[in-house]
Predict the 3D structure of the following.
Amino acid sequence: MTLYFSRKLRYDCGTNKHEFLEEKMKKRFTRRHFLQSAGAAAYVGTGLALPSPAQAATQGASAGEVKSMARMFPGCCAYSYRKYLKSGRMSMQDFILQMDKIGSVGADMTVYWFKSTDPAYLDDLRHLAFENGVPFSGAACGSSMVQASAEKRRQVLADIKKWIDVTDLLGASHLRIFGGKLPHGASVRQGTDWVVETMKPACDYAGKKGIMLGIEDHSGVTQNADVCLEIMHRVNSPYAGINLDITHFIPTAHEDRYAQINACIPYATHTHIRDHFDDGTPIDMDRVWKMFHDGGYKGFMSVEYEGGDEMTGIPKLMDKVKALCRKYSTA
């Protein structure tokens, strides 16, 4: 695997590769243009949706070309319904059923509202999801690795291992974890060191179960892409990735938020999606999806809604996500 090149080398290689593929795609579209146009009437006649350009591109493509193409699936985080889950008006079972109602392909299982970690409870969630055709895109715990105390770091590692076991019992393959906020007086360097110290053995443990650990660019030490990338390079594990929340990066003098999102896409193992940045600025969603497309991302684009009424706001955001996945994904 070529996971651990320098940021510049990975970016340059990726850019050249996609320029090469783009040129080949243009030629392939030219040769197939008539057939695709003629076939459109057949699709319309059956009532089926026409394939998007991204989907059409897979027709006749080589295995290597298909491997580099993006596959993006609409998903939703349980955290989106936190008001209902906190109050008891919704259970995790209800959340799973809600996925079918809003047309979400996957469910991201935020563990804050699990009633238990007993295998019987987890088996019931897993079975209900299967019966309703809702795969788990992953689980999300609140374990934060930025801890000044060595004893606390050992406790956090034990906690992450517990949630890895829970993720395994759910039949999911991804667990979101946090870096965390810096304690008073601590430096970014110290915080990064603490994260690496904890995440390395956590990834070793997760790898034995085939589970990816995605550190989120959440509040604290990971709100800068350079820190996220340094963590990836130093942890140096095929089971380490970034749970890429597109809303949280803080702009710097050298990189705006879009540049930081783009820099982390090669390491993205899951995403959290809102339509505005933390400061309320609207996100150019089409621009973001094109970056994921160009980066060959394969995975879930999971709505993590924060706003007004969830029962109306989440379906609206989900419709945007579904439309963009269809536009830019081969899935």
Observations:
- Residues 1-48 have pLDDT under 50 and may be disordered.
- The longest helix spans residues 7-46.
- The CA atoms of residues 272 and 310 lie 16 Å apart.
- Strands lie at 71-77, 106-110, 136-144, 174-178, 212-216, 240-245, 268-273, 298-303.
